Amino acid sequence: MQQQPYEPAGARAREEAPRILVVDDDPTVAEVVAGYLDRAGYAVERADDGPTALTRAAAHRPDLVVLDLMLPGMDGLEVCRRIRGHGPVPVIMLTARGDEDDRILGLEVGADDYVTKPFSPRELVLRVESVLRRSRPASDTGHRLRAAGLALDPAARRATKHGVELALTLREFDLLSFFLRHPGRAFGREDLMREVWGWDFGDLSTVTVHVRRLRGKVEDDPARPRLIQTVWGVGYRFEPTGGEADHA
Question: Cα dist. 62→4, 65, 100, 152 in Å?
Answer without folding.
Answer: 16, 7, 27, 26
